[in-house]
Amino acid sequence: MTLIHVPRPDVKSAMNPDRPVNALLKAQIQHLHDAEGNLPLRHRTDIYINAIRTEGEAAEYIRRVTEAIDEAHEAAAKRRARPVIKRRRGITIAAAADKGPVAKGPRASGQEKKSALKRGQKT
Amino acid sequence: MTMPPGLDNLRHIVVLMMENRSFDHMLGSLKAVDPQIDGITGQLSNPDTNGNPVNPQPLAQFQGQLDPDPDHHFPAVDLQIFGGDTSPTRQPNMQGFVKSYFNQQRDVGHSQKIMYYFAQNQLPVLTTLALEFAVFNRWFASIPGPTVCNRAFAHYGTSFGRVDMNPIYVNEPFKSIYDRLINANPKHTAKLYYYDTTSSTMEVANLLQNQPELFGTCDQFLDDCSNGNLPDYAFIEPNYSDHDTDSGEEVANDQHPDHNVQAGELFIASVYNAIKQNPNLWQSTALLVVYDEHGGIYDHVAPPACTPDQFTASTNDTGTGQPFAFDRLGVRVPAILISPWIPKGTVVDRTFDHASIPATITKYFLGDYSPRSPRETSADVFIEPNVAPVDPARNLLSLESPRTDCPDFDV
What we know:
- The complex is a heterodimer of chains A (123) and B (411).
- With 123 residues, chain A is mainly α.
- Chain A is 44% helix and 2% strand.
- In chain A, helix 2 (23-36) runs parallel beside helix 3.
- Chain A is elongated, with a radius of gyration of 34 Å.
- Chain B is globular and about 60 Å long.
- Chain B has one domain (5-45, 120-378): 3-Layer(aba) Sandwich (Alkaline Phosphatase, subunit A), CATH 3.40.720.10.
- At the A-B interface, strand 1, helix 1, helix 2 and helix 3 of A face helix 6, helix 9, helix 11 and strand 15 of B.
- Strand 1 of chain A pairs parallel with strand 15 (408-410) of chain B, so a sheet runs across the interface.
């Protein structure tokens, strides 16, 4: 079995985080910026993408948004995993034990109600 | 009727898509080693802006040469392919590369560097893989344009009418290959491995919808290979930027100009080694190493016409004064299929483009599936469906037993 040696580049000369950001990274930044707009506010960065000039700056923004998307998914998964509290229909009112029932007066007819409303009276 | 053992054993398909290098630039030197490989000959040239012919030369450098980044947007690629001919009856002549690169710096001497290619010994990984396994003479970018839309063809079988780098908003009904697999019944597994969170993915639409299920990092890919947890289909993205991490400096390894080409060689070797070092995985996996587009760099093979997609890019979108019906492929790119079931020295002359990726994965794992784009349904497949009878003339995984003489890379 042949073993092929693979030369390593010199990292010091190959590496340049100050390299101007290329068209591919600019596109990725724009795509992630659009994606960031879909995230809840608490997951968004405060980075102004038009100010990104270098590969290093681009890398930082890309990392922040990618991790934010990851966090948003994790938060959603945690919410789904919470036990669901079932709510009863209607409202239970505690009985007022010391008060008797309130007597009701005769009901006003429709005509009487309209007249009373015109006069500004309660019916 | 028995299945060929290579296909019968196949459980995983892995695609590694690198950036922006043409076939002649990376593999053209191999014509001198194997005449079947359609690479560089002495008859090739491009005119410079003075009308002088410029021949391809093995003078490519790992870094610092193709700066500025050669233009690979739609109008520039149109010039590269058609040499400046804008007539309705024009034919591709591949004569516009030097003229196109001249437009960026107005330097005749510098513009000629677009014709440079790598000598074989400069790219020990890529050239070894091409000679040891199956190299494709006719794998083209899906459209004559830039990265985002070409990568979309690899994920969706279409770019939804886009020829530029703007975000692609997925229009139903064409689902990504990942969605098809994970929503199938029975369910299949798929993973898109990006290098790390700082490099992230170019496939942002899926990142938003499916982050936990579909995405992983390169470190996870290495672990999954070691532990035998590789999904049915895996797509790997390289590192797109030089950046610092907690464990040190990471050099971009996508090979996009002006990133270091040797760093990309190391990355390709590490992906190959990760699969090969697990013997069970090695015998049940096919790895495709392919490039998304040619990056504006010279290649001599004219892209053919193809089945039109159902979308059309408008005159405003193309920037050439003409609409585009997605009826012509982009420039040729390196593409190599790797498996111990492939005979050494296989050269494939059938035509492929990136729509062949979802076409192959879909047919192999899902069989009949719709809806798919017209480009995908007409694309050739690089692995035959796992259904008898298999055409022996088309099956690349054709050996009766896996090879034991495949190379290893010392990384």
